[in-house]
Amino acid sequence: xxxxxxxxxxxxxxxxxxxxxxxxxxxxxxxxxxxxxxxxxxxxxxxxxxxxxxxxxxxxxxxxxxxxxxxxxxxxxxxxxxxxxxxxxxxxxxxxxxxxxxxxxxxxxxxxxxxxxxxxxxxxxxxxxxxxxxxxxxxxxxxxxxxxxxxxxxxxxxxxxxxxxxxxxxxxxxxxxxxxxxxxxxxxxxxxxxxxxxxxxxxxxxxxxxxxxxxxxxxxxxxxxxxxxxxxxxxxxxxxxxxxxxxxxxxxxxxxxxxxxxxxxxxxxxxxxxxxxxxxxxxxxxxxxxxxxxxxxxxxxxxxxxxxxxxxxxxxxxxxxxxxxxxxxxxxxxxxxxx
Amino acid sequence: xxxxxxxxxxxxxxxxxxxxxxxxxxxxxxxxxxxxxxxxxxxxxxxxxxxxxxxxxxxxxxxxxxxxxxxxxxxxxxxxxxxxxxxxxxxxxxxxxxxxxxxxxxxxxxxxxxxxxxxxxxxxxxxxxxxxxxxxxxxxxxxxxxxxxxxxxxxxxxxxxxxxxxxxxxxxxxxxxxxxxxxxxxxxxxxxxxxxxxxxxxxxxxxxxxxxxxxxxxxxxxxxxxxxxxxxxxxxxxxxxxxxxxxxxxxxxxxxxxxxxxxxxxxxxxxxxxxxxxxxxxxxxxxxxxxxxxxxxxxxxxxxxxxxxxxxxxxxxxxxxxxxxxxxxxxxxxxxxxx
Lengths: 339, 339
Known about the structure:
The structure is a homodimer.
Chain A lengths: L17 H15 L2 H4 L5 E4 L4 E9 L5 E2 L2 E2 H14 L4 E12 L4 H18 L2 E10 L7 E10 L16 E4 L5 H8 L18 H10 L5 E4 L4 H13 L1 E6 L7 H10 L12 E5 L4 H9 L8 E9 L3 E5 L5 E3 L13
Parallel strand pairs in A: 5-6, 10-13
Antiparallel strand pairs in A: 2-7, 3-4, 5-7, 8-11, 8-12, 9-11, 10-12, 13-14
Helix pairs in contact in A: 1-4, 3-4, 6-9
């Protein structure tokens, strides 16, 4: 007798009994297995290279689960890897918490677990501990994933504090708005057809290169929910500084630009999953840009603005017609469940 | 204008924009705030006492969210604290990932956050990083919580490996079945009235006392989903040993016993959230029991069985009438969403 009803997940797969064990041994361990995870202990015992670490958590509820350029599995790994890397940590270990809706297709689950493995391999991190719960039909939307992550901090760098300084130049690595627009335009109800792909990617390799070039990066953030406008406003608030953007310098691909126009969005407010913003001293910006452009995830690196005077936290933009306007934070996301 | 519609959570509270910030500053930081969390960085930077750590994750989907003896907040802290402590680690830092259903009452959320704070204080752990997502009505059942945890491992103990040895005696700290039966009997649809309270509690203080008495505890597990029968079978499998239980020695409160009888459950299969099982050398068992009984969460400590010969992984029970029967793992939980 099969342990799955019509190749779907049942409530008993989350009950902590025999069928939970089957799910772990059938679906998770053959793909994700390693010395630590295979032990199936209550927690993973790890030896870190250093006593100083970064620790972060993120839950992923993206709709749809599969979108152009990625899926919830790749998203869940990259999102947490990037949250560690932008603090100057070397991402090492991830946990994986699944909340599955009863009736979820086993094949989709297998495919997402494979994505998790591939993204973890690309980022050089290991899934060392996990948990699975199954909720009844109508109590989730297919699958939600939480990943928490531990990174080791091996050098003392200003970026751990994450405070921008007046005079810093602001650099992004890639075109804006790809992830949010890929997810939005792939929702069936919008009946929209584009070729936009999510930028979801682990940025720790690129960041590693960047920290080799300069130890003076004062702050880095990945521009996920809330988009570039969101992180810029956080940076301005935290450093109590003005930030001035150059609209014409901000990289946005043509298809994203068109889709944003049609849907009434602005690319700087749209979620990204492979965009980082770094604040660097002006005399190091050129070398930083050159280095970034050699990396696959930094080919479109550009200076998009600068950090102004202290004492007046706000973000403004010089538009392409030469006027200035204030860039505020949106109240929420334009559409929910982007990440 | 209020940032909440009828004092309920809206989708925009999870959108990463201004209202997300409001929720964090209004509801989370006033209760949970600390130097690390207040920074609101992408990840928390922590200094550990040692390079060796334990790392674990757990998602909580309990129904109802508030049950006799606790709520999902206390459960989410204690569950993860206990998973660290049974591996011999000192629980230090937790992450908090919330998935909230649109329309969730702000007052319930505040109450759960307060529970999280109280349980964290009792356990001596700090919430250092968090994340909140809001999903549309009908895409969750009120609130799901993920906590991941980091504990420091400061001494080298056999319990980190968690392998039982032939001859070990098996000790539990408290009566079985309290949590599962408290949750089940509080579900309105069952129309059941009892005074059973969940045993949900952080066990790290008790475990600390136990490890002071003996460095020879060979394995510890908390008997959550799958109950005592589940963890005993895991212990038997992992150590490839026979385990023999004594039915009359297993502590079960009268009200749980009656409720189990009426609903057709067995207490050894019911979920606990404050029960640990420890395997100790026979000559140290008396002293261990005496020490445990001095602790509020160990008052009912008792030897309930022993580890037999190697090479035949199974769990058997000497019943109160003197017969023997095999104790197997259930296929799932008897009822879903217990923890």
